[in-house]
Amino acid sequence: MNKDKIFKLAKGFRGRAKNCIRIARERVEKALQYSYRDRRNKKRDMRGLWIQRINAGTRIYGVNYGQFMHGLTLENVQLNRKVLSELAMHEPYSFKSLVDVARNAFQQGRTMPTSSGREDANMNQ
After folding, report:
1. Given pLDDT bands bounded at 50, 70 and 90, which one contains residue 106?
2. CA-CA distance, 4 to 86, in Å (whole number)?
3. Which whole number is the average pLDDT over 80-103?
4. Are 55 and 65 in contact (CB under 8 A)?
5. Does residue 19 contact residue 25 with C-beta atoms inside 8 Å?
6. What gap in Å lies between CA 52 and CA 16, rounded to an integer?
7. What percent of the chain is modeled with pLDDT above 70?
8. In this structure, are residues 27 and 13 in contact, taking their beta carbons and an 8 Å threshold?
9. Apex CA 86: angle with CA 81 and CA 88, to 5°?
10. In this structure, are residues 31 and 9 in contact, taking their beta carbons and an 8 Å threshold?
11. 35 pairs with which residues across the strands?
12. Other C-beta atoms within 10 Å of 71: how many?
């Protein structure tokens, strides 16, 4: 990168990191590494937040997160965690109906269909 681009990216840094080219280059390279890493970590953190919200919403109705997700899988409900967490926060009645669907499927002990569409007899054991 040329000098102007480095100083433009180093704007706002403290001390000589904003106006000394050698230090600024090192700090900008490290900042770009952090931003690359943290764009991926942000996705991980959001998924964890969604799971916490879903778990909090399901425990109100006496079901834990694992049972809830397993029940939804058995019923072939294909809502992602982001949507489920939004439902848990903003649509409690809709979320309660999903919890009831998942609880019934989990308690009935249905087997999950395999990739070929047949039910596997070994899944019940």
Report:
1. confident
2. 44
3. 94
4. yes
5. no
6. 42
7. 87
8. yes
9. 90
10. yes
11. none
12. 24
CA dihedral over 18, 22, 28, 31, signed as positive or negative: negative
**Amino acid at site 26:** E
What SS3 class is residue 6? helix
Q: Return the H-helix or E-strand segment holding 15.
A: none
* Residue listed under structure tokens 């937040």: 49
Distance CA 117, CA 64 (A): 28
Specify which residues 113 forms β-bridges with.
Answer: 119
CA dist 17 and 49 (Å) reads: 35
- pLDDT for the residue 56: 94
Among 23-27, 83-87, 118-122, the minimum mean pLDDT is found in 118-122
Cα 59 to chain centroid distance, Å, stands at: 19
The answer, yes or no, to whether residue 109 has pLDDT greater than 80, is no
Q: Are 75 and 101 in contact (CB under 8 A)?
A: yes
Residue 118 has pLDDT above 50, yes or no: no
CA 43, CA 104: separation in Å to the nearest integer? 32
